[in-house]
Amino acid sequence: MKNSNDLPNLLNFDILPKVYYNKMDIIETVRIIVHQDNDKVLMLQKSHDSKNPLFWELPGGKVERLEPIEAVKKELLEETGIDLDISDISTFDKLEVFKYTYQYNNKKYSRSVRYFIYKIDKDKIINFERNWRDIVDASKIEDKHIGFMWMDKEIFLSESHSISKNSKMALKKFFQLI
């Protein structure tokens, strides 16, 4: 695969939409494709009591009152314990912002998902794998994950795992690049 540094970095915050939560009809989220040298991608498995039980998804979450790039850093740290430098993240410009609507408690919401890419180094992989369970157990996030895997293209194409719709779309584009 091309080095993440070869992908254009389009972090122009002037063009990113601002979402204010007093409005609550648009929810801006971020997802990050964390990949190894061998092009395996980090996937997290949702818990039994989540909205999509046992589905696999890319790390990420709501932007809230942060810039999207800062939200990526925060969510990755919360969900995995992986602390990264913002300069190591690049936008996934091959994938447009994914938008969809859904209904919850008789109210319609619109969600946008912006994707980022991060190539993880071996030391961070070892630290993540060694400490992941402790990080998850100590986490205060509501929608915890119960497992992780490094998914390669072959596993993805086998469709043997239930993958969230937006993660599936992002992985399809990502694996086309490698």
From TrEMBL:
Signal peptide: none annotated. One of its GO terms (molecular function) is bis(5'-nucleosyl)-tetraphosphatase (asymmetrical) activity. Residues 25-177 form the Nudix hydrolase domain. Keywords: Hydrolase. One of its GO terms (biological process) is ATP biosynthetic process. InterPro entries: NUDIX_hydrolase-like_dom_sf (IPR015797), NUDIX_hydrolase_dom (IPR000086), Nudix_hydrolase_domain (IPR051325). The keyword Membrane does not apply. The keyword Hydrolase applies. PANTHER family: BIS(5'-NUCLEOSYL)-TETRAPHOSPHATASE [ASYMMETRICAL], DIADENOSINE 5,5-P1,P4-TETRAPHOSPHATE PYROPHOSPHOHYDROLASE MUTT. This is NUDIX hydrolase. It comes from Candidatus Dojkabacteria bacterium. The lineage of its organism: Bacteria, Candidatus Dojkabacteria.
